[in-house]
Structure formats: C-alpha cells, structure tokens
Amino acid sequence: MSNKDNHRQSRAERRAANEAAAKAAAERAAKERRQQTIIGACVLGVIVVLIAVIALSIWQPWKNSKSSESSSSNVTVQQAYDQLQKVKNKPTTANSKGGILLSKNGVNKKVSGAPTVAVYMDFMCSGCGSFNRLVDPTLEKMLDAGQLNLELHPMSFGDRWSSDNYSTRAANMLLYITEHDDNPNHILGFISNMYADDFQPAENSGVTTSDDQMKKQATKAGVPKKVADAAVTDKYTAWLDAIDTYTPKRSELWNKSGDLKGQMTTPTITINGKFWDMNQSQSVYSDTKSGLLAALGIEENKVGVEGTMPSIGENGKPIAPSADK
C-alpha cells in the first residue's frame, strides 16, 4: 500500500471514529448549545446578588488576563478594527477580520464555486467542542471533495474559565501551525484532537493541560514534530486579545433568535458571510449537522462526492429551515 493510500486510510479511520463519537454526543450537543458561551459585557448583567457574585468570579480572571488599556465596552467596532490592524505580530495566514481559509488545495487557496463556511470558535468552549465532534467529520469530507471552503476564526476569551490560559495557548498553537503546515487535514485533525471528548478540559474544572500534551495532539494529526514544538508560543496573544475585543462587536454575528438574541456566542457559523441561525435550525432539524447541510443545499448522501456542489454556490445565502423538510 502506498504512503498516499495509508494517509487516506488513516484519515478515513479518524473520520469514522469521529462520526461514531458525534452520533453518541448528538443529544448532549443540543443541550450544550443552549449553554453556549456568552461573550462581552452582558456577563455582568446580573439580576440578583448571588448571580452577581458568580458572574464576577468568572469575569475577573478573564479581565485580569488581558492587557488592553481601556474597557472593550467603551470601544466602537471601527475603533476595535483599527486596533486589530495595528497589532505588531499578526498571523500571516489570517485575513483582516481574523479568518483563516482552508480548502482541499491548502491554506488560503479558495475553491471557486464552493460555499465558504466560517466557524468562530474557542478551544475552551464546550459548545464548540460539541459542534466539532458532531459536524467536523462531515465538513472534512466536503472540504476534501472540493465542496466547500472552511474559514477558521480562533478566539481566546475562554481563558476566564481556565486556570492555565488554555484558550490563548491553544489558539496560538493553531495560528502557528496554519503558518507552517499547509495540509488542511493536519490542521483540522489538530482541532478535532483538541476538542476530543477525552481531552478538552471542562469549563471551570481547574484541569490544567501541559504544552507537551497539546503538542502530542498536533503530531497525532500529522503535524511535523518540529512544527508542533515551535507552535508553543505567545507570539499572537496581543492579536488574539484584539480579536476578542473586535469580533463580539460585529453586529452581523449576533444571534438573531433565542434567549441570547443580540449577543455573539460561540460557536457562531456564517455561510458565504451570512449568519446561519443555529437556534432556528435546531427548532426544525433533529441535529446540527442535518440543519447545516440543509442550509448549504446538499443531501447527506452527496457529501464527499466530487463534482456535486451545494446548491447555494459561492455567493448564495443559507437556505432557511422549513417545517416541510
């Protein structure tokens, strides 16, 4: 068997394992979605004293871990964007809004005619982990077949629920890897390994994760050891701080329905730059994956079939969920 065949087989085995785990986690994913991370000052919007005390204990560690000179609540979206552009050390693979595009061709090599799915994520976010375990095996198949482009938007606000700045450390690793490993399967494999049910630390659990443990998740995905070792860095921490200020202020990313309407949460998904209402989709479809495929306009039995493209193409809006699905 050739090295290429071995590579494909290992990818197929990983996908099969991910899909099995995703199926088992489907019901839990719906519950966790309702508990998704709230970004921004609304954490402070408490009603009773007990909730205020709890909220403060969550907010304060995050606030102290950031080095911004002024409160993000006093900054406009344009000011936040301008500050982001002024950061000295930016990941060379990220666009001006913080997105890193992957396709079957590599990093920032868009497949023409295919829709672009953007995922706003945090490695500490339990809802992001559930989304990854349930949906990413399908997205990987579509990416390999040239049926979509995938845009990653790593964030690091989840440090507030971590005792070791896990979000920032993991996001730094991801950013470095995208700059030094052009294989999208290595990058997505690293993300899936970090979100694995038996690896991702629970929010506020006090669990610490060593650099060596995270490097192992990278090399298991195929990232060269030299790259994984060098990926332990804080080079992009200032950029991530600026992203955490700018991204939640983008009103086009705010929830359009549900209890968190008017706020940004993670995971947030856009399709061709348009907000996909996951809350609305979940009221119609049995699971997130089915809803996303419907929004893209592709049947599940066509996923991974080269030459078959989602009906919305590269410019269409997400297809709204229908009770007559």
Automatic annotation (TrEMBL):
Q: What InterPro entries has UniProt attached to this entry?
A: Thioredoxin-like_fold, Thioredoxin-like_sf
Q: Does the keyword Methyltransferase apply?
A: no
Matching entries from SUPFAM superfamilies are given as: Thioredoxin-like
> Source organism's superkingdom?
Bacteria
**Cited Gene3D superfamilies:** Glutaredoxin
Return the Pfam families for the record: Thioredoxin_4
Domain annotation Thioredoxin-like fold: ranges: 115-283
Stretches of Basic and acidic residues bias are at 1-17
Listed A to Z, the keywords are: Membrane, Transmembrane, Transmembrane helix
Residues annotated as region Disordered?
1-20, 306-325
- Residues crossing the lipid bilayer are 38-59
Protein name stated in the entry: DSBA oxidoreductase
Species in which this protein is naturally found: Bifidobacterium erythrocebi
Q: What is the lineage of its organism?
A: Bacteria, Bacillati, Actinomycetota, Actinomycetes, Bifidobacteriales
